[in-house]
Amino acid sequence: MLQRIQSVLLLLSAIALGVFLSTNLWTSQTATGEVIVNPYHVLVTQGGLSSFSQDIFYIAVMAALAIVLAIFTIFQYKNRIRQMLFVALNSLLIGAAVAVGVYHVKYDGMSVEGAGEGNFDIGIYAGFAALALNWLANRFIKKDEKLVKSADRMR
Q1: Is 120 helix (H, G, I), strand (E, B) or coil?
Q2: CA distances, 139 to each of 17, 30, 94, 119, 155 (Å)
Q3: What is the pLDDT of residue 3?
Q4: Dihedrals φ, ψ of 82, to 5°?
């Protein structure tokens, strides 16, 4: 049924991934400009002009696939085993997107001369929240499956 808690958690996970896609992961102020890392590119600006840009759109592709898979998984409520499989696959996609995003922050963003530590923005936290919500959804799906199996034994 669509009103189950795991459906709500999967929807919240998809929304969190939407926030992940639409906000910056990390920003830092340098002496002459700014360094921005988001799911689409690493951008270094100096004096209002882009001095370096590296496309990392594959992070956005993984997150978009995870959104589609989360929404598709909501409608698989009649087959909980398949739903658990899709949630596990979604966890891999979300985890890979967040991990690659953190990698680019560490090795592309922080390595810019004068970038320093910088600040993690809401995008990175939304990615971790999506991962946690996906994990919780899996727990509730397993709980439902266990309840159904115990009810079948009693009949």
Answers
A1: strand
A2: 19, 44, 17, 32, 25
A3: 67
A4: -65, -35
